[in-house]
Design goal:
The complex is a heterodimer of chains A (340) and B (315).
Chain A: H1 7-30, H2 60-66, E1 74-76, H3 82-87, H4 92-100, H5 133-147, E2 154-159, H6 166-177, E3 182-188, E4 191-192, E5 195-196, H7 205-212, E6 217-221, H8 225-240, E7 246-251, H9 269-276, H10 280-290, H11 295-318
Parallel strand pairs in A: 1-2, 2-3, 3-7, 6-7
Antiparallel strand pairs in A: 4-5
Chain B: H1 3-17, E1 21-25, H2 40-44, E2 49-51, H3 56-68, E3 72-76, H4 80-83, H5 87-94, H6 97-100, E4 110-112, H7 130-134, E5 140-142, H8 147-160, E6 164-166, E7 191-194, E8 199-203, H9 207-220, E9 225-229, E10 232-234, H10 238-248, E11 250-258, H11 263-275, E12 278-284, H12 293-296, H13 303-314
Parallel strand pairs in B: 1-2, 1-3, 3-4, 4-6, 5-6, 8-9, 8-11, 11-12
Antiparallel strand pairs in B: 5-10, 7-9
Classes of the chains: A alpha/beta (340), B alpha/beta (315).
The structure holds thiamine diphosphate (TPP).
């Protein structure tokens, strides 16, 4: 267990991770038979439709990072954003409603999994475009600096594949040039869709590129929630106190396929087996047990998460669909009504 | 006042009125390459008139983030051709944010991207891409042709709260004209420039000048034209255009952009559907703009071609 962390805080991290896992397991089950990427026939019976990107195995990163954030801090996310959103404090049931496409979802059913957002907790949106969240994050951080919003900061999650797109480099440069309060968090899960990221990436990845722009980067075992928590504590503190941008490079693993219907047949079974040995939730449970937390306490956390998710599924099931007219709202004010 | 001075004045007034208005882009501190930000950094400081790296994706994306976080950014793209480097940030982010997130977010930014043929500047500095943007749900598209309109429409754009693609013409900066600083021009309202009965002629931006010259030539032949400056492409002023078409029963749309798949087709189809009038479009051939004068001229739609198209439509 992490050197400085209390068992109470440890339990909180565990709860965050377990809630993410339970949410995504349920979402995955509810997506069976749904629309697929990569050419499989869509049965259409699924309750969660469309591409569903699961973060199974990566839960320690959002849990460890977001534990240091306030509601007034901003967060931008990726296509794999359920964990970030929950860890930032968004309501789990409303998120399930959005995945079901219901009117009661965060976006009224207009966004779905790839566009989960809860502006009320500073979560400015998952994004269907790889690396697109980075420039938006620096803009939000730039506004925080100009508006002098106390010591609020912006955190920006992105994958290891995203660092090969221009906006990653443009955003890092921007953040450094203006000394913005932004923490970049690379969730390095070793895969970009169905292609391993390593052979597609020149140099030593996110940290090396940050270092080349004089942005201090910290590498951490992203499957060790205490290590993530501790590294993020320092980086968030430095960013909050006006130290400028920082980058956290968290090494983790994508346990599931790229999207829920992807069985990841392209992947070496030994690689997956090795990764499963370091499952962050099992590890954290072991650490907490050896630190004296009772199994009953941890079981209760898991059961509560499952109950919460079951309730969310029922709420989402019962929730109404959006009115068809909603397709015509929130497009734009000027020129709304001139649809044709 | 010149077209560029009118723009400076418009932004200045909005910055005075609203502390949330900021400007960001390349070279804006020195006034912008066309003088369209002249003096603003001196007046408002480098924190509100922000010189940026050459980084269009980041400029546009940061503008989106700033807008979401409570600012009202003016995003400078230098020319419409370079705005393409920030296209995801405009098309997938700025234009979609509000809808996709169920109305949680608003992106009140104005993206200025000078358009049109810039003399002897060849294929990557002379494009007219307004139809692309008019195709995008979520954005407003403005193409002012006069100093007054540039002043009034830029202010309206800054006040409107939706993302605005604001396309000034690259060769109109020096155009001088009266500017009444109290005059408001609403977005989405066209201006009737001449009254006539023989046909309706619709255009915008720099092409208004060629159209005006064509109307003079036609008037000498006894052909009077209802000339309309559209000013805003989205939302476009259907009421004014269709009322005119219903009266004249002839519509010619002229634009500098290539003719095929252009915004002229949208207006022509709408007018034909609504009024049954005869329609014609006139734009550039579907070729990149060439460098040598003789090549560049192939992309230009001049008064003679406009008058000829009008006669043909009448014949
Ligand atoms: C600009 C862009 N190109 C391609 C895609 C298709 N795509 C979606 S996710 C993905 C892989 C992204 O890899 P990474 O950034 O490492 O994130 P991960 O999926 O591993 O979490 C790709 C190629 C996209 N969404 N956006």
């Amino acid at each position: 267990m992490g050197s400085s962390i209390s068992t109470g805080a440890g339990e909180a991290l565990y709860r965050t991770m377990v809630r993410i896992r339970a949410f995504e397991n349920a979402a995955e089950a509810a997506s069976q038979g749904g629309v697929s990427a990569y050419g499989q026939e869509a049965a259409g019976a699924a309750k969660v439709r469309g591409p569903l990107h699961l973060s199974t195995g990566q839960e320690a990163v959002p849990a460890g990072v977001c534990a240091h954030l306030r509601t007034t801090d901003y967060l931008t996310s990726t296509h794999r954003g359920h964990g970030h959103t929950l860890a930032k404090g968004a309501d789990l049931a409303r998120m399930m409603c959005e995945l079901f496409g219901k009117a009661t979802g965060f976006n009224g059913g207009k966004g779905g999994s790839m566009h989960i957002a809860d502006f009320s907790v500073g979560m400015l949106g998952a994004n269907g475009v790889v690396a697109a969240g980075l420039p938006i994050a620096v803009g939000a951080a730039h506004a925080q600096k100009l508006l002098k919003t106390k010591d609020d900061i912006t955190v920006c999650f992105f994958g290891d594949g995203a660092i090969n797109r221009g906006p990653f480099l443009e955003a890092l440069n921007w953040a450094r040039v203006y000394e913005l309060p932004v923490l970049f968090v690379c969730e390095d899960n070793r895969w970009s869709a169905t292609t391993a990221s390593g052979p597609m990436t020149a140099g030593d990845g996110a940290s090396a590129r940050a270092a080349s722009m004089d942005i201090a980067a910290t590498q951490v075992d992203g499957n060790d929630v205490f290590a993530v928590h501790e590294a993020a504590a320092r980086l968030v503190r430095e960013v909050r106190s006006g130290g400028g941008p920082r980058l956290l490079h968290a090494l983790t693993y994508r346990v599931k396929g790229h999207v829920s219907v992807d069985v990841a047949a392209y992947r070496d079974a030994a690689e997956l087996a090795a990764a499963l040995e370091t499952d962050p939730i099992a590890r954290t449970r072991g650490h907490l047990l050896s630190a004296g937390v009772s199994a009953a306490t941890l079981d209760a956390i898991e059961n509560a998460a499952r109950d919460e998710v079951d309730t969310a599924l029922a709420i989402a099931d019962a929730a109404p669909w959006p009115d068809a007219e909603a397709a015509f709202t929130d497009v734009q004010t000027t020129g709304a009504g001139q649809w044709h | 006042m010149s077209y560029s001075e009118a723009a400076v004045r418009a932004i200045q007034r909005e910055m005075e009125a609203d502390a949330r208005v900021v400007v960001l882009g390349e070279d804006v501190g020195r006034g912008g390459i066309f003088g369209q930000y002249k003096g603003l950094q001196q007046a408002f400081g480098a924190e509100r008139v922000i010189d940026t790296p050459i980084s269009e994706a980041a400029i546009m994306g940061a503008g989106v983030g700033m807008a979401l976080a409570g600012l009202r950014p003016v995003v400078e793209m230098r020319v419409v051709d370079f705005a393409l480097c920030g296209m995801d940030e405009l098309v997938n982010q700025a234009a979609k944010n509000r809808f996709m997130f169920g109305g949680q977010g608003r992106v009140p930014l104005v993206a200025r991207m000078p358009g049109g043929i810039w003399d002897a500047s060849a294929a990557q500095h002379s494009q007219s891409l307004e139809a692309w943007f008019a195709h995008l749900p979520g954005v407003v598209v403005v193409n002012p042709s006069t100093p007054q309109d540039n002043y009034s429409l830029l202010r309206a754009a800054l006040q409107c709260g939706d993302p605005v693609v604001y396309i000034e013409h690259k060769t109109l900066w020096g155009l001088r004209g009266e500017v009444n600083e109290d005059m408001a021009v609403p977005l989405g309202k066209a201006r009737r420039v001449r009254d006539g009965n023989a046909l309706t002629l619709v255009s915008w931006s720099k092409q208004m000048q060629a159209c005006a010259a064509a109307c003079e030539a036609l008037a000498a032949e006894g052909i009077t034209v209802d000339l309309i400056d559209l000013r805003t492409l989205w939302p476009w002023d259907r009421e004014t255009v269709l009322a005119s078409c219903a009266r004249t029963q002839r519509l010619l749309v002229v634009h500098e952009a290539v003719q095929v798949a252009g915004f002229g087709a949208e207006i022509a189809a709408s007018a034909a559907e609504a009024t049954g009038c005869r329609v014609a479009r006139l734009g550039a051939p579907r070729i990149p703009v060439g460098y040598a004068p003789v090549l560049e001229a192939q992309s230009r739609v001049g008064p003679e071609a406009i008058a000829a198209a009008a006669r043909k439509l009448l014949g």
